[in-house]
Amino acid sequence: MSAHTYELTHLQALESESIHIVREVAAEFERPVLLFSGGKDSVIMLHLAAKAFAPARVPFPVMHVDTGHNFPEVLDFRDRTVERLGVRLVVASVEESIAKGRVRERPDGIRNPLQTVTLLDGINEHGFDAVFGGARRDEEKARAKERVFSFRDEFGQWDPKNQRPELWSLYNGRHHKGEHIRVFPLSNWTELDIWQYLAQEEIELPSIYFAHQRQVFRRDNMWYAVSEWTHPREGEEVATLTVRYRTVGDVPVTGAVESTASTYDEVIAETAATRITERGATRGDDRLSEAAMEDRKREGYF
Amino acid sequence: MELLRFATAGSVDDGKSTLIGRLLYDTKSIFEDQLESIERTSRDRGDEQTNLALLTDGLRAEREQGITIDVAYRYFATPKRKFIIADTPGHVQYTRNMVTGASTANLALILVDARNGLVEQSRRHAFIASLLRVPHLVLCVNKMDLVGYDQTVFEQIKAEFRQFATKLDIGDLTFIPISALNGDNVVHRSASMPWYDGTSLLHHLEEVHIASDRNLIDARFPVQYVIRPQAQTDPELHDYRGYAGQIAGGVFKPGDEVIVLPSGLQSRVASIDTATGPVDEAFAPMSVTIRLADDIDVSRGDMICRPHNQPRISQDVDAMVCWLSDQPLSVRGMYAIKHTTRNARAQVRDLDYRIDVNTLHRDETADSLGLNEIGRVSLRTTQPLFADDYRRNRTTGSFLLIDEATGSTVGAGMML
Q1: pLDDT tens digit string along B192-230?
Q2: Is-contact A291 A142, C-beta < 8 A?
Q3: Beta-carbon count within 10 A of B362 CB
Q4: What is the Rg, in whole angstroms, of the alpha carbon atoms belonging to chain A?
Q5: What is the pLDDT of residues A18-59, one digit of tens each?
Q6: What ipTM was reported for this prediction?
Q7: Quick one: angle between helices B151-165 and B120-131, nearest 10?
Q8: What pLDDT sits at residue A108?
Q9: Contact B396, A165 (CB under 8 A)
């Protein structure tokens, strides 16, 4: 920042807004939790929370909704990060939900849609009243309309037509017992802002965000990793390519992009030049229908 | 790179979506998969042209009904600035939406169709922008191509608007003749309007001076959260006590004499901390942590300011209120009030008048405010608030009224 003109850069302005939101939640809620997957947005959220309360520790736990289909690099990163920051990790496991009969495994083995039940069960079980999510408005058109403080009823449902107006930097977190508020401190960040900030703050990420060699196969115009849970079908050829991930999710629905970007600067250059949104390029689950995200969000999805 | 937030408003069919689409498209902020998706939907619906409104109309109900229901936020950047657009729809819930979008905007962009000139909605949009104290207003006269790029049409609209604007409080007013469809004066100066000697819209958005819009005079720090490390591990932090918050006005420096409200206790700023270390000064809207030289009792909802420049400390609030709920505001009604980091309850003592947002006529006989109506009210709060006039400080001068039973946000207030 320039001390003489009293100007903030766009990253400083975004950071300041996000820290304000995070502190507001810590002050007004009894049991907040931060959803932490090891994905870049949740990494930034946790980084901002650590900054918001420094030199004290983050005053709430983090929760990972674990589909059981993880990139090992990401799990390792998750565990190291919570250890370093001294925050408590709660794992809500989709596999456990399946074992308990709360949800049934789908024939295609994709667990992304099953996460909603596990997430809501986790929120109920621990009595969380505010749940930080890393969703951004630039990601998806249903998310472009969502509030920073987004009300969820006792069933975890979002009602997009009945949202509270949100003005200035005054956030209304009122709710009754059993209801909760989803909070999105990164609402106004874009994918490019995220990468610029990661570079500026030198924040560590799981290695799969950078170019690496991987065995992949082509399906529905996307490159999927060959893994324990994902195998090429007949006619789908396997190739070893240099790829990286733009998003990190349930392995069977998360596609890789061909890329040689191996540093922050290279990723920023690539992100600035890309012509396809990150969800369009890498998320099989958003391609179900025009309103796939809105429908999942109504039911309580992230 | 600086951040500029602007709100767009226009009436039906004045080309707002086309303009936003063009700004996004020409700054390469629309992605191929988004474009393909809306092209497909437009085709399926039998639209003749690709409907750029589909970019922002994200909800199922919006696409089904072909209308925009809610404020949509869009993002784009040029090498000079990052922009956040709050796109506020014209037909449904217009006042509520525009008030919301304008509340955080540095600039309001109002579109007028050159063929129709100023309409009722243009005046309403200008009134709301001035009520919300948006510092910069741009009136874009669109569809200049359809009036033969005629300068007299532009000048007439300009003169008419200037006259109306004298009734309002508008800081900085700019007029730009454009054709969103053809791109005239949107990103580049147009060759079709050589008589226009101003800049293109994008150039204006990139260059308009916003740094001095903030209040850098009245130091205001609403305490948001008290940081007290549980520091068994680090004895150095044992006595750490920091007051976290976002600076709402003015500049703070270590060594400043300060007073804490409501206690009235005085101290000095010992240091201003951030996670990356102490800073020499901090100004709005930075989020920081202030430590004081003396061990005095400070908690959330308190205000740190300078002894010789304090906000009003009062339980009586006069304000313009925009009503956001189906359940009308009623005199004697009790609401929760949220003001800076302070929560209290407020009773409506009086409704002085209701204002007609189209004619600016004041109806002093009104006894309630319905959805999307604006009026001047007097409130009595259960606790004192530390308030500035909204025209002096948009952060310490604004508040929400909340229905205590439903938890809904029902009113947006601007202190007088």
Answers
A1: 999 999 999 999 999 999 988 889 999 999 999 999 987
A2: yes
A3: 13
A4: 19
A5: 999 999 999 999 999 999 999 999 999 999 999 999 999 999
A6: 0.94
A7: 50
A8: 78
A9: no
List residues bridging with A92 in a β-sheet: A65
The answer to whether the Cβ–Cβ distance between A172 and B300 falls below 8 Å is no
Pick from A265, A136, A3, A15: which is nearest to B3 by CA?
Answer: A15
Residues in chain B: 416
Q: Which amino acid is at A9?
A: T
Q: How far apart are CA A302 and CA B153, in angstroms?
A: 51
More confident residue, A5 or B105: B105
pLDDT score at A55: 92
What CA–CA distances, in Å, run from B22 to A191, B50, B51, B108?
A: 21, 12, 12, 18
DSSP β-ladder status, B107-113 and B136-142: parallel
Three-class secondary structure of residue A248 per DSSP: coil
Distance from CA of B211 to the nearest CA of A (A): 6
pLDDT 10s digits, A135-152: 999 887 778 888 999 999
Q: Which amino acid does the sequence have at B268? A: R
Averaged pLDDT, B131-159: 96
Is there a contact between B58 and A5 if contact means CB atoms under 8 Å apart?
A: no
C-alpha separations of A121 from A33, A63, A124, A302, B154 in Å: 14, 12, 5, 13, 60
Average pLDDT, chain B: 91
Residue B51, burial from CB neighbour count under 10 angstroms (0-12, 13-18, 19+): buried
Mutate to test the interface with B, among A11, A19, A51, A162 (most CBs of B within 10 A): A19
Q: How far apart are CA B52 and CA B41, in angstroms?
A: 11
- Look up tokens 């900054």; give the residue: A51
**Cα→Cα distances A74→A87, A165, A228, B291, Å:** 17, 37, 15, 38
Task: Report the share of chain B in percent with pLDDT over 70.
Answer: 94
From CA A51, how far away is CA B314, in angstroms rounded?
A: 34
**Shortest Cα distance from B299 to chain A (angstroms)?**
11
Better-predicted residue by pLDDT, A96 or B175: B175
How far apart CA B150 and CA B355 sit, in angstroms, is 36
Using the beta-carbon criterion (under 8 Å), do B287 and A143 form an inter-chain contact? Answer: no
